[in-house]
Each structure stands twice: as structure tokens, then as C-alpha cells.
Amino acid sequence: MSDNQEQDDAQKTEDPTPKKLEEARKKGQVAVSKEINNWLMLFAGTILVALMAPFAFTNLLEILKAFIERSYAFPSAPGGMGVILGGGLKQVLMALALPLAFLFIVAFLAPFVQVGPLFAPEAIKPEISKISPIKGFKRLFSMRSLMEFAKGLLKLAIIGVVGVIIIYPYFDKFEHFIGLPIPLLMGELKSLVVSLMIGVLIVLVVVAVIDLVYQRHEHAKKMRMTKQEVKDEYKQTEGDPHVKARLRQLRSEKARQRMMQAVPSADVVITNPTHYSIALKYDPETMEAPLCVAKGIDEIALRIREVAKQHDIILYENRPLARTLYDTVEIDETIPVEQYQAVAEVISFVFKQKGKLH
After folding, report:
1. What would the pLDDT profile of 81-115 be if each residue is shown by its tens digit?
2. Which class is domain 259-354?
């Protein structure tokens, strides 16, 4: 591995994001254990031998008997043997059709058990790198290939040991197979093969689980991201934080402009007197309660007071009421019921000043 590659791997300290995993899945990059697939196929084979082998062997035996017992009846005309052999092959395929279909279904469902439904056309997309002799040579002698080779040897050794342990008690009994009728011989062999396959299955399930954990660990390690990659993905999905902040600022400025445009329609601005300003509008004929058309603190409060003075709107100083209204009422909302009495006094004073009350 080159120094640059090692440096890149060292920088990949962040767990993969859901978006990164989803994109990898679309490319067919998922954690799949071949040992799980092999174990399921062996399990299916054990079921076939235990349940369907007698039926299939009986059918095959009947087919072979026809060739042996009635060989004298085979036609001697040109092409006759081809017809007989073709018919026999067809019968053999029919006898094996159900077991082969079962194995095909298991082979199809084995990856589905691990990764669920997956359609990744990019995984089979032609690429020059896949047929490059140089890259193929590198893959052949890569650390992953060496690990797979070592794992294969270990698996063969384990299967060999298990096989010897299971078959060893039968070493002194093989002689009695010679005189057994074929049906009894097939039954004994079936029991021996099933016992051997079950023993291998029990051992290989441990190998398969360990390999599955290893494959998922390696996949997660391969999918890790650098902090910069996480930031770049966030920018792509959520937007640049600086741009979002600028958009929020623009929206805030537009909302402030609309608010300032509504100040001239107010009847009174309640102040504290410097830090808070609340502009209220009230029309007894159309409104049930005074409406807040603008509010602000500090600089915005000062700007509200300036606009109010320009349009001859009364400034009413009431420090507790100004702070309470700022905390309890939003723009374009009517004041809360709890403040009706206090605001009513202010509105009454304002209307008297404007000559609206007599």
C-alpha cells in the first residue's frame, strides 16, 4: 500500500453517513459473506440427501435398469442409439429437476437473506479495470486474496478433520457393505453421508458467522469517511452553512422591512423607554383586541420609535408593559387576554389625545 493510501485511510475516522451507505448499496457495494452462501447451499444439499435422495435414486435406478435389462431391444438402425440415449437423458433430467430447482432457489435467496432486495446494475457495468491484466494480477496477489486462500485451506482442514472423526467408527464396518443388496446399501450410505454433512454444517456455521462479522467490519471500515467528506456531503444535502446563514439574514431583513412598513399604521408605540418598543394598532369596529404590528429591542426598537415620530404616532412609556408584551405577543397577533386591562388604559389615553373619545 502506498504512503498516500495509508494517509487517506488514517484520515478516514468518521462513520459512514446513511447517504454514503445508500450510494454504495446502489453500486452493489455491500457486506456479503460467501461462507453464509456456501453454508446455506450445503444445508439445502443435506435436506435433499436426507429427504429427496431415496426418491431420486429410485427413479435413476429404474432408468438404468431399463438400459441393462433390455439392452437387447435397442434398435440397431442408424441413429437409434442416439434416440435411446436422448430419451434416457431426458428421464434423468426429469428425475433431477425438483432437486436442481430447489438448489437454484436456495442459491438465489442466499444473498437476499444477508442484504435484502438489491438491484445494482452498476455492479455488472463493463469497466476496463475489470479486464486489465495488471489490476487483475494485483487483485490475485492482494492481501484480501491471500486471506481468502488461507481461509479456504483452513476450511478444508476443518472439513477433513470433521470427516475423519465421523467416518472413523465405520472403518471396520465397510466390509459388510459388499454383500448388501443395493437398496440397503443406498440406505446405509445415505445415513453416513447425512451424518457427515450435518457434522460439517455444525462446524461451518461457526466459520460462516465469523466470516460474516469480519466482512461487515471490513465493509464498515472501507466505507469510513474523512471529516472533509462529511462536511462536503452536508453541504450538498443541507446546503452550505454560510449560504444558509446569509439566506436567514436576508429573510430577517425582509421581515424587518415589512414590519417597519406597518409601523405607520399603528395607533401607539409602547416603550420602556429605550430598549423595547411595541407598536399596537386597534380599530374598535373591526378588531376584538389590539394587534401587534411591530416589535423590537435596542437598535430595532430605536428604529420603530424614529418611524413613529415621523408619522406622529404617540410614544407611551410603560416599562413593565413593554417588556411583558415583547415576551408574550408575536407580530400580527392580538395581545393576550391577561394584558387587556393594561393595554386598554393605554389605548384610552391615546384615543383621548387623538380626539377619538369624547
Report:
1. 566 667 667 777 777 777 788 888 888 888 887 87
2. alpha beta
